[in-house]
Amino acid sequence: MLIIEYPRCSTCRKAKKWLDEHNIEYEDRDIIKDNPRKDELKEWIEKSELPIKRFFNTSGKKYRELKLKDKLPEMTLDEQIEILSTDGMLVKRPLIITENVILTGFKEKEWEEKLL
After folding, report:
1. In the chain, what are the domains?
2. pTM of full prediction above 0.85
C-alpha cells in the first residue's frame, strides 16, 4: 500500500496514525517531493471509478488561486489530469493506493470498509 501525503497536513498525520493503529503496512510518499505523475494519476482515476473532482484538493489555496472551480468544468479529463500533475498541493490528500482500492482524503468509516 502506498500513502501519498503532505507531512505538515494534520489529516495526513491522523490517517497515518490510523493505519499504524490497525497494523497496516504502507509506503510513505511526500506529495511535494514526489508529486504524482500524469500517467499515475490517469491510472488511479480510472481504477478508482471516482469522479476526477475527488482527486482535487478543492479547499486548497492553490486551487482557489488558479480559480479551478470555474475552469475545470470546461476542461477535458486529460487537461484536468495535466493540471493535477503539475503541483502536489492541488491533489487531495492523503491518497491511498492499493492493488484494488484507491482512496482520496481520510474518511475513517470508508477506510474501515475498504482496508480492514
Report:
1. 2-106 (3.40.30.10)
2. yes
